[in-house]
């Protein structure tokens, strides 16, 4: 079939042609927006899940829903070595710029931009070189005495409070979206929780919508014990069979192409219902199928190409980031995993036993793998891969280091 018409889109954060299986999350967010519009209290939202389940795509879709209601929005992608000051300042600058045309008092916007500029400027020392200073393109002078103490917990509460006040004046809200939220530095996580706590108590129309790996709730809880009640948590998982069939079939149907039931059976088995894999296998299958309807034989012929692409771009690129000691740790994890469900957690004590090492001696490798986002610890004494099917990939590559 014509590859130019191929509707599938495997890519990091790239919206698929059919956003299947996420209606519940979208409807829930619409309720949140409507409740805030009516002055009802609402919690900020946190999405968690493995890589490849579509968290970033869903985050972007929720942002689009907020924009559709004329909210001010901004987005941040957290990094483990970067303070939140500059990214949040830039995101809120964008959000307030979206609200400015609807505000009746330009001076009120300028007052907030002055506070925002002061907040962002504290990201670097006063004696920093000119090239390291923050230049946000804000024409008003930085305010003094508000959100500029240097203590990010105090400053973020004040900044969020002022931003919410601007939104209140306009009669709308502000939503701040944070991707890879598990990578927010620990001190900044504490500040973020404190700011959200303050907003939730006052009913201010500003919410944070975060997305991150499965251990994100534990990261937040370790920072502030009340975070368990502060956020509304939504686990984003693989698609069920009906939703996966929709993700395969609906884009093809719009191009006049159909799937045989056997083809969908095989595609679901191979993809596991993970949205990224659905797109990868769908794209390869389309390119190899000679005509409609697409058959099970077409899928089997195309599968090696999809697996080769995943092996390089999805699995291999992550594996290459690991040191030899870390790779040994992950291969042992894969060997110990349940053959029927290799995405389940394994015991760190069992890993040490197989390697003939004391658990404490393996802590550096484990901790670095967690920081690199390759594994996570959902419960004390266990670890699991953040990437679905990664254990299966490792088992199929016995000589991967040779």
From TrEMBL:
Keywords: Heme, Iron, Metal-binding
Region (Disordered): 1-20
Annotated Cytochrome c domain residues: 168-334
Molecular function terms, GO-annotated: electron transfer activity; heme binding; metal ion binding
Name used for this protein in its record: ATPase
